[in-house]
Amino acid sequence: SGQHRVPRVTAQLLAPVEDPQKVICVGLNYHDHCQEQGVKVPKEPLIFSKFPSAITGPFDDIVHPQDTTPLLSPQELDWEVELAAVIGKRGRHIEEAVALEHVLGFTVANDVSARDWQMRRNGRQWLLGKTFDTFCPLGPAIVTREAVADVHNLWIRCSVNGHRMQDSNTCHLIFGVPTLVAWVSRFMTLVPGDILLTGTPAGVGVFQKPPVFLKCGDEVQCEIEELGTICNRVV
């Protein structure tokens, strides 16, 4: 009817899914991202996770953690623009041919990463470096599967302070969405609201020469064709 609209400038958009049961992530899933760090293309999806408490809104701040013990405070914050799939239908041992039927839609994510904790601390297990509070900006909305022409042919970009750092296309995914949904469902039951981050392309800060990391005051903009843009300031 058009009678119940709220002006955008008067509203604060929250993450489209705030408290999912699972946030499942995929590492090394773009050919160009493997090339920039000189590693072989994985033969199987590399799965890790974030806790749901890492999720924040599409325009909310990314909090640079400052622990009272300086040695525990991460120093190497990095960006990772990612296509996120939102599960809409429960399933286990899902066949790849019907895997997309279990996806409600897609949104934009930033897999913020503390590289020092990911790559050198905590026995080099990735979890802590990936799951600080606010380390998963998400949004601006869920675009339903039917509304996306081809999820495996969308440009995907990230800019920091207006400088383009990542510029790729989802056609460079090593494992596409149906493959990932089917693979993950071999190990766990997927339920509505679960979020699957599908990996990031080349251009992350840690592999710049010299490396570049986020600092307070930086603004990170992540955008995916047909899905929209999220923009978050580091504080």
From TrEMBL:
Keyword DNA repair among record annotations: no
PANTHER family noted in UniProt: FUMARYLACETOACETATE HYDROLASE DOMAIN-CONTAINING PROTEIN 2A, FUMARYLACETOACETATE HYDROLASE DOMAIN-CONTAINING PROTEIN 2A-RELATED
InterPro entries xrefs: FAH, Fumarylacetoacetase-like_C, Fumarylacetoacetase_C_sf
Gene Ontology MF terms: metal ion binding; oxaloacetate tautomerase activity
Keywords from the named record: Metal-binding
Superkingdom field: Eukaryota
The Fumarylacetoacetase-like C-terminal domain, residue ranges: 22-235
Protein name: FAHD2 protein
Phylogenetic classification of the source organism: Eukaryota, Metazoa, Chordata, Craniata, Vertebrata
GO biological process, one term: oxaloacetate metabolic process
